[in-house]
Every structure is written in structure tokens, then in C-alpha cells.
Design brief:
With 345 residues, the chain is an alpha+beta fold. The chain folds into two domains: 151 residues, 2-Layer Sandwich (60s Ribosomal Protein L30, Chain: A), CATH 3.30.1330.10; 158 residues, Alpha-Beta Complex (Phosphoribosyl-aminoimidazole Synthetase, Chain A, domain 2). Helices cover 34% and strands 23% of the residues. Strands 8-10-7-11-9-12-13 form a seven-stranded mixed β-sheet. Strand 12 and strand 13 form a beta hairpin.
Length: 345
């Protein structure tokens, strides 16, 4: 059966039934006074707000730009399309709540494939207490998924604009593994089976750092963002927002042993520019950093320092102590930069 056989509204009814029957996980909004009053199926979803800060984010994944069907199964695509938005909420130190999903689909798309897409969304949603409460569907020459997500924070969210000279920079886990998974699949690289499985999983099923964001926020960290476009480029964005510069120490960048095994000559490049790790990059004064780092998962590390300088400038200090311009290593939709990946599958 194809979507054109079922029709737009028949498919919508099927997906709404899936979304409402298979919900699970905690309702993070309820303790803070949020109450859902209009669920999926009306013109809009509606909820009453309490005393918390409400967070909003949205992200789109387009076939041939962010994913290909050869490298990303539909269920994993559903997971990733939601994970990228949950990660934005995590970067603010918040908890995710309600999602709106817009699908652009060729009419020849198999209904079973879209059900798989939704199953991937629902899997990650159950882990993080997210409810799909509505959305839209349109005909499109290529498949795309747009997710709009809300979240809540009980106080002041983490921001990109609050890093200060003298802060140390940290990441909440190993970087570059997702980029390594993409390279593995695009280049059909021959690597040991255990490394291949780890890298594919890191790319297809990234784990948003919601718990880590809450740890940072509760500890008093002020500045953070998620690593979606690559560590070096995302750090540059944080520095621009804060009016500061930064130094990354290459020897301190945490690289998983399996990524290093698979790509020994390219692992640092992947760590700096691979993107889609969905970890958190954060800054804090040294004393606070020493207090919060032991509370984070394996792979969390201090990778450098915030300094006064041209806003957005990032230097990479090699093991010999020589500083180099980090350059543009990450993902940009419209750049002609040869470092940019051909897709973000």
C-alpha cells in the first residue's frame, strides 16, 4: 500500500492513533503547571503554562541534503529527526515536552515506510517524555521531515552568549563518532566489525544529552550549546555570541578508541568537523568545571579555554604547542566549502 492509496487524511488518522496509543515516559511539564488541553487532531494543539520558562525549537531534514535512504533506514531517520530537536532543548538545560511534525512526501512513498519513520520517533519520545500533538503533511518531490518541539526549564536556560575569558571549555562525551559513521557508510570503508557497528549506531541513533544539560544547569553553568554542525564551527558560533575567542588543545579532544581505530589518520578532523554528535559544548570557570566534570559520562573532558580576541575566532593548538586557525570544518547548507559533507545522512 502507498500513501496515494490511503490518502492524506487516512494516513494522518493512522499516525495520530500510533502517536496517542504508544506514548510513554514522564510528562515533564505536569509538575510545573503545564496541562495539555487540545491534543492531536484539531487545527492546533494547546496547553496551559505554569511558572516555568517554555522553550521552542524546530529542525528540518531533507532527503539528499541531510539523509539518503541508502545510509539511513526510515526508523533511524525518525529517531534522528526527533533527536536533533531534543538536543536543542538539552542545550538550554531544559526538558522536552510537545512536538509538531510536518512531513513532505512523494505520493509513491510506501505507507509502511512512514509508519517505520513514526516508530523511530516514538521510540526516542518514550525515552524523553515527548508527545507528538499535531503537525502537517504536504506533497513534495523529495521527502522531508520538520519537527517543532517545545520544552520547559524551571529557571534560567543555558545560553550561547554567556562565555567569558578565563572559562574552560568542555564537552559532555566523545566527539566525531557520528561523522565517522557517515564516512564509513559513504566511503564503504573496511574497518573492524565492532568499530563499524559502533560508528553506524553513533550516526543513526545519536543520544541527546538531556540529563547532562540538567546537570550543567543545576550546577550553575551558564554557557552551552549542542554540537550539531561540528565542534570547531559550533564553538565559533558560541564565541561570536559571547564576543570572545577560544583555543582548542588537540591532545585533549576526547576521541572514542573505536573511531581512532577505524580512522587513525582522520579521527581528529572528524572530531572537530564531523557534526551531528548532539553532545553539549559548555564553558565554566575552572573551579566550577572541576566540580561538574566528574558528574558527566565517560568521554566528558576539558578541551580548551575561552580567551579575549576577535569574536568567533577559534585556534587549534597541536601537541607541540603550535597554534593554527581551526578554519571552517563543519556543516553549512549553502557553503561551497570543500570540507562540508555532501549530505548529512
Amino acid at each position: 500500500m502507498q500513501i496515494k492509496d490511503l490518502g492524506e487524511f487516512g494516513l494522518i488518522e493512522r499516525l495520530i492513533a500510533m502517536a496517542t496509543r504508544q506514548r510513554g515516559g514522564p510528562d515533564h511539564g505536569a509538575p510545573l503547571g503545564f496541562r495539555l488541553t487540545v491534543d492531536a487532531g484539531d487545527d492546533t494543539a494547546a496547553w496551559r503554562t505554569g511558572v516555568a520558562t517554555e522553550l521552542f525549537t524546530t529542525d528540518t531534514m531533507v532527503e539528499g541534503v541531510h539523509f539518503t535512504r541508502e545510509t539511513t533506514p526510515w526508523r533511524d531517520l525518525g529517531w534522528k529527526s526527533m533527536a536533533s530537536n531534543i538536543s536543542d532543548i538539552a542545550a538550554m538545560g531544559g526538558l522536552p515536552t510537545y512536538a509538531l511534525v510536518t512531513l513532505g512526501l512523494p505520493p509513491e512513498t510506501a505507507v509502511a515506510d512512514i509508519e517505520e519513520l513514526y516508530l523511530g520517533m516514538l521510540e526516542i519520545n518514550r525515552q524523553h517524555g515527548v508527545s507528538i500533538v499535531g503537525g502537517d503533511m504536504v506533497r513534495s518531490p523529495v521527502a522531508f521531515i520538520t519537527v517543532a518541539l517545545t520544552g520547559v526549564h524551571p529557571g534560567q536556560p543555558l545560553l550561547r552568549s554567556t562565555a567569558r575569558p578565563g572559562d574552560q571549555m568542555g564537552v559532555t562525551g566523545y566527539v566525531g563518532s557520528s561523522g565517522g559513521g557517515l564516512r564509513l557508510m559513504l566511503e564503504h570503508s573496511a574497518v573492524p566489525a565492532k568499530a563499524a557497528e559502533y560508528l553506524r549506531q553513533a550516526h543513526r541513533r545519536p543520544q541527546p544529552a538531556v540529563a547532562q544539560g540538567r546537570i550543567l544547569s543545576e550546577a550553575g553553568v551558564l554557557a552551552a550549546m549542542d554540537i550539531s554542525d561540528g565542534l570547531a564551527d559550533d564553538l565559533s558560533k558560541l564565541c561570536k555570541a559571547s564576543g570572545v575567542a577560544a583555543r582548542i588543545f588537540a591532545s585533549q579532544v576526547p576521541i572514542h578508541p573505536l573511531l581512532r581505530q577505524a580512522f587513525p589518520d582522520r579521527c581528529l578532523e572528524l572530531a572537530l568537523g564531523g557534526g551531528e554528535d548532539y553532545l553539549l559544548l559548555f564553558t565554566a570557570p575552572p573551579k566550577l568545571m572541576s566540580e561538574v566534570l566528574p558528574r558527566l559520562p565517560q568521554g566528558a573532558a576539558v578541551i580548551g579555554e575561552i580567551v579575549a580576541g576577535q569574536p568567533g575566532q577559534v585556534e587549534l593548538v597541536d601537541p607541540a604547542g603550535v597554534a593554527h586557525a581551526a578554519g571552517s570544518l563543519g556543516w553549512d547548507h549553502f557553503t561551497g566549502d570543500p570540507h562540508a559533507a555532501p549530505d548529512r545522512s
